[in-house]
Specification:
single chain, mainly alpha, two-stranded antiparallel sheet, 9 helices
Length: 241
C-alpha cells in the first residue's frame, strides 16, 4: 500500500512538474516576442533574491532558467556555496531549506556542463564544504598529537556511566505510562505466542517512537537554558554563537 501511495505521489508530482515547465515555456515565448526587456528584469529579480536570501516563487525561477540557464545556474550555485560554507547562518540556512532545496530546479540538466543535473552540482558543493571541515579537524587532531601531554589523553579509558537515556540517574522517561509497558509480564503460561509477539512489538514501539518523541520535546524545552549556560562558559574563550 505504501509503495502504491508513493507511486501515486510520483505521478502527481511529475504531472505538476510537466505543467509548470509547459507554462514557463509559454511565458518565455510570449515575453521573447512582446516584451524582451522583461526577461532581463526576471533574471535581475532572481539574482537579487538569491543574493539577499529572500523568498522567491518557483515560476519566476523556471522562466529565468529557460531564458538563460547558464547564468541562472551560476546565481543559484553561488548562493548555495555561500549559505553552506561555515559558519552557517541560521536564517540563511532556513531560507535554503524552505525555498532552494525544495525547488524543482535540481532536476534540470546543465547542457553546457556535460549534461549534468543541477543536483549533482549541489552534491559537489556539499562534498567540497565537508572536505574543508574534515581537513580542519584532521589538522587540529595532528596538532593535539604533537602536544607533550597527549599521552595523558590517550591513557584515559572508556567508561560507560549511563548506557540508556531512561536510566534513573538521567531522570528522563520515568513516566509510569512508559515504565508499565516494560514491567508487563509476557511470559506467563496463559499468554500465547501471538500475544508475546504483540507485547514485544509494543515495547519496541514505545522504545523507538514514543520515547524519542518525548526526548525531542524535552530537548526543545531545555535548549534555551542549556545554550545560556554553555554561552556563559564559552564566552571566556572568545565570541560564542
Amino acid at each position: 500500500e505504501s509503495t502504491q501511495k508513493l507511486g501515486q505521489r510520483v505521478v502527481i508530482a511529475r504531472g505538476k512538474w510537466d505543467s509548470d515547465l509547459k507554462n514557463a515555456e509559454q511565458r518565455l515565448k510570449y515575453l521573447q516576442q512582446y516584451s524582451p526587456q522583461t526577461l532581463q528584469t526576471v533574471i535581475a529579480s532572481v539574482s537579487d533574491s538569491f543574493a539577499t536570501c529572500s523568498p522567491f516563487l518557483e515560476p519566476t525561477l523556471l522562466v529565468a532558467w529557460l531564458f538563460d540557464a547558464h547564468k541562472c545556474k551560476d546565481i543559484v550555485l553561488r548562493a548555495c556555496e555561500k549559505v553552506l560554507r561555515a559558519p552557517i547562518d541560521d536564517d540563511e540556512y532556513r531560507w535554503f531549506t524552505s525555498y532552494v532545496f525544495s525547488s524543482s530546479i535540481w532536476m534540470l540538466k546543465i547542457e553546457q556542463n556535460g549534461g549534468k543535473f543541477m543536483y549533482e552540482e549541489l552534491l559537489a558543493i556539499g562534498n567540497a564544504v565537508s572536505s574543508d571541515i574534515v581537513s580542519n579537524m584532521d589538522s587540529i587532531y595532528e596538532h593535539l598529537q604533537s602536544h607533550k601531554q597527549w599521552h595523558k589523553v590517550t591513557a584515559i579509558k572508556n567508561e560507560t556511566l549511563v548506557s540508556r537515556q531512561d536510566d534513573a540517574k538521567v531522570g528522563l522517561l520515568q513516566e509510569s505510562g512508559l515504565k508499565s509497558v516494560f514491567e508487563t509480564k509476557s511470559d506467563d503460561g496463559d499468554v500465547d505466542d501471538e500475544d508475546n509477539k504483540l507485547s514485544e512489538d509494543v515495547k519496541n514501539f514505545i522504545d523507538s517512537n514514543l520515547a524519542i518523541n518525548m526526548l525531542t520535546s524535552t530537548a526543545s524545552k531545555i535548549n534555551h537554558e542549556f545554550q545560556r549556560h554553555i554561552g556563559l562558559v564559552m564566552r571566556s574563550h572568545g565570541a560564542f554563537k
